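RECORD TYPE: protein structure
NAME: GDSL esterase/lipase At5g45960-like isoform X1
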Amino acid sequence: MRSHQTHSSSAVSFIFFLFLLFSPFSFSTSKLEPVKRNPKRKQSVSAILIFGDSTVDPGNNNYIDTIFKSDFPPYGLDFKNKIPTGRFCNGRLATDFIASYLGVKENVPAYLDPNLGVNELITGVSFASAGSGYDPLTPTITNVLDIPTQLEYFKEYKRKLESKMGKERMEKHIEEALFVVSAGTNDFVISYFIVPIRRKTFTNEAYQQFVISNLKQFIQGLWKEGARKIVVVGLPPIGCLPIVITLFSGEALTNRRCIDRFSAVATNYNYLLQKELGLMQMSLAGSKILYLDVYNSLYEIIHDNHKFGFEEVSSGCCGSGYLETSFLCNPKSYVCPNTSAYVFFDSIHPSEKTYFHVFKSQRRIYDSIIEL
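PREDICTED:
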């Protein structure tokens, strides 16, 4: 496994820049309707196995040497027993809702949690690491688990299952598992737009192809290890992330509209990604590779927010909502009185309510998996 002992100077400069606003902490609560599933439905998914970044990391970063953690309040504010698990959210992630909907488990744990029992391992875990990406530079900047390391942990996971189930049962179990891959935002926001290294060697279009090439290599690696049901999440409208508006808008305090030129990058990337995933499915025997569209789901929530019951779309609930994330969103930070009114919980990550709406909008994808 890769060492996590050092941070790049670019990362230090970026983090130092973000150290700005702290103020008193307050509590809030939100209630979501439970995820309903059909008890007569045949369970065709044996487990859920997740890879990627903070959008799907339930706490792996708690166990590695990185500053990109969220195992402290106000994170977890609306999670069961108000526990800050390491999810970059006030509550559950979309993958928790997916797992519950499929009838696999209620919440997906972090693979690196040393307290996981055998049953937790068998029904699925997340290998994701907040701050990671498909570009090898990205996890180097943030000093987190890169995608190849996540794949190595999956191989280790398979060996653990084989020791409990036997090789034949383990392979069948993996074949029937759902694999979710969600990353890419950090590659563009951090490694391309904030840190200038990649911009010196790649045009934006070439960088999109570079990121997709690395993603394809990872999917091929999963397929070689037995993955057959794979969902790949596209990029969100990155020009609407509060931190992007803050850093790149010329009038961030007075005009917090989405920055279209950044979201256009995501739109083009998603178009290319869908084409490549279609080609991959044809070339990888027995695979079902599905694209999950979070762009349009989140875009609709932001631009028709009152329809979904949101009041604030351009700043996070934590602190000023302009820059705070990870350790900048901490027990001393101000927290909005109603998390359900905010699309974002911190300056990057959606609130639990937003994740729930995104999950609901993509239910047809999960139903198609059940029918496989």
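COMMENT: Residues 1-30 have pLDDT under 50 and may be disordered.
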